## 1
Amino acid sequence: MSRPQQITVLGATGSIGLSTLDVIARHPERYQVFALSAFSRLAELEALCMIYRPLFAVVADAQAARDLQGRLQASGLATRVLFGEAGLCEVAAHAEVDAVMAAIVGAAGLKPTLAAVEAGKKVLLANKEALVMSGALFMQAVRQSGAVLLPIDSEHNAIFQCLPGDYARGLTQVGVRRILLTASGGPFRETPMEQLLAVTPEQACAHPNWSMGRKISVDSASMMNKGLELIEACWLFDARPAQVEVVIHPQSVIHSLVDYVDGSVLAQLGNPDMRTPISHALAWPERIDSGVAPLDLFAVARLDFQAPDEQRFPCLRLSRQAAEAGGTAPAMLNAANEVAVAAFLERRIRFPEIARIIDSVLNAQAVEAVESLDAVLAADGRARELAGHWLSDRNSRRGEA
Ligand code: NDP
Ligand code: MG
């Protein structure tokens, strides 16, 4: 076999980053860690560097880079420590890199992920926010550079596996009628509506089936995650929003389905463990062991399905509206959601206010066409500003009350 593939893991200290490293460690003859990045968990990054001995590590700022560089050198490691967005883009686009795991959470991952795309890498996309924000530009960059884009989101990875190899000809051309995007419904699927006012960040982060980072856990609880995934599916598979239907499936065993015109419905099943889509994308078009236990259908016993309730989950409706509006709407939706989720995690707002902030931001700003990355970043910045105003107005409203 040829030399091991060189892998950059952006967001190595996160849930997806650690699952990726777990898979890589099972196949040292195939994969070698080229670079690792972290943001706040520096001790964890240092420990990962000791294990995987990457050529580069990337941290948030110059001070953190100097500190880590000193500690790694003292341990006899030759790892070079870079910092900031420039450092992330450098390790994403480096000539020696074969594949990049894009697993930074939120808009912070946009430029590094795009750097990997523009450099024509194999890009394993977990950072759905990057694609949601910049959809048309992102997909255009994929086509221009010849990057190989593989979805890590379990639903999109499932859809990819259920589509024919030539699906890029167009869904209708290959006989696809609908994409059925499954959703667990999160921890509040059956919580009485009036109790949602009092739910805590801890309850929102206690997902019944998946162990994930805090932001995506809150997104799953509000179903904004499914809204972002609806937009993600439209870009990845060139689907219209009306071609993507959300199906609540509480067991999270079917990861999504594709409905064909002849009545065939293909699904991908498996235990809810992100190492399956990660292994699939890393090795594609081959298959490798992921460490995930075989699916025990007798233990699962039953599979349930329900239609989503948009009264309970207004974020889903807002996402569909943003998908249909196009232009800057998804970037604004995403930015408003990031601000709202951070405020909820800091206990500054109640859970149902997440959707109210997003709704208010989308109503306050006209949708514009997206012709450049600057237009995307301006829409992102404007939405953050509007969401910030909403939060300070809320405080003054409460102060007066
Ligand atoms: P985590 O919060 O667990 O990890 C996020 C990673 O991004 C960490 O390494 C973190 O560094 C880094 N990071 C955070 N903020 C910044 C920043 N401003 N600049 C640079 N790096 C930053 O998230 P997850 O692993 O759960 O999710 C990662 C992405 O994958 C998200 O986009 C999510 O939607 C997507 N995804 C996740 C799934 C899951 O099962 N977890 C499933 C499907 C998609 P540090 O920890 O050092 O602060
Ligand atoms: Mg998902």
Note: Residues 373-400 form the longest helix (28 residues).
## 2
Amino acid sequence: MPPRKVTGRIDWVGAVDWDRRLFDGIIPLPGGTSYNCYIVRGEEKTALIDAVDTSFEEELFTNLFKSGISSLDYIVVNHAEQDHSGSLPFILDLFPNAKVVTNGKCAELLTELLLIPGDRIMVVDDRQSLSLGGVSLQFLIMPWVHWPETMVTYCPEEKILFSCDLFGAHYATSKLFAGDDEEIRVGAKRYYAGIMMPFRTTIRNHLEVIGDLDIEIIAPSHGPLYDQPGQMIDLYKGWVSEDHSNDVVIAYVSMHGSTKKMVNKLSDELIALDLNPVLYNLTCSDPIEIATSLVSAATLVIGTPTMLFGPHPLALSAAHIVNMLRPDTKYLAIIGSYGWGGKAVETIDGMLNHIKAERIEPVYVRGQPDEQDFAAIAALAEKIAGGHRELGLLG
Ligand code: FEO
């Protein structure tokens, strides 16, 4: 992808990764991704905002060349994760007079992860400004967007916020701006769910700081830019809020059909009670899609048979991912079937120790569910509905 003009003084010079299908060895990327970085030209100095994944460093070099960049004074690093910083050693070799500009925590991580020498790093404080001549960069340290060292960079003269991962989307596109593309907003929610959901309280505070800035463009480090920044900020405010939907996420796996029959019965009962069951068969579901549903769902049900001496491994994996991402789920139940024992319910429940949801009595049956078991499932649906009613989600 060639360089693109964002404003008179700012170019996009990143890379679009159309082919990438997995991030961190676990997060599916159905729509690829991009590693955005930007050139800001002042009258005296030139800065690069973030860099790209190591695999695209030559593309970054080409884009810098095409943008007419023959020297760089600063490389602002908003975040040390290697999809943005991996090409930093290469860029520092290309521009031996350039300094990395970042906060103290990020400087530590860059030294540890990429062996960046300390004398190449200029450490800045929260809200410190750096003049490039006629245009400036202000650094706002915002820890725990999902790592401890994250910050954003604001250019007041151009009214643009370089937000790095915040507001990003793993989404490969030739569009520079998202416009009204709903698919990109879905990608942004998926991105939030997959890496930022555990830090929603912190992000809520960061959104207040960002709300005080005069922003016309949000320029994240993944996916397209937003020239209606209020829309994206409002979406984030909704995702980090304590509001819940009437959804009941049922993530399940069934070996010989018994757990599936229980899931189907529960789904039917929930629908009859005006709740919205959202079913994910774990043999063919994307874990981040489940996480995305859990951004607002009031209830999670995990359905698992016993396999040998414990829960099915796919249910274990799902429980582990949910526990890592810590959705604000209010009610939790476990259902399933066993043959000759095991501790599936206790094991799954124990793995969900970060989920503070109220536990509803599990329905765990021996063999194929009978009428009595289906009555227990109907009672479970009633209890879930009662919980949703308490939350004001049902009339
Ligand atoms: Fe896009 Fe946290 O790196």
Note: The longest helix spans residues 371-390.
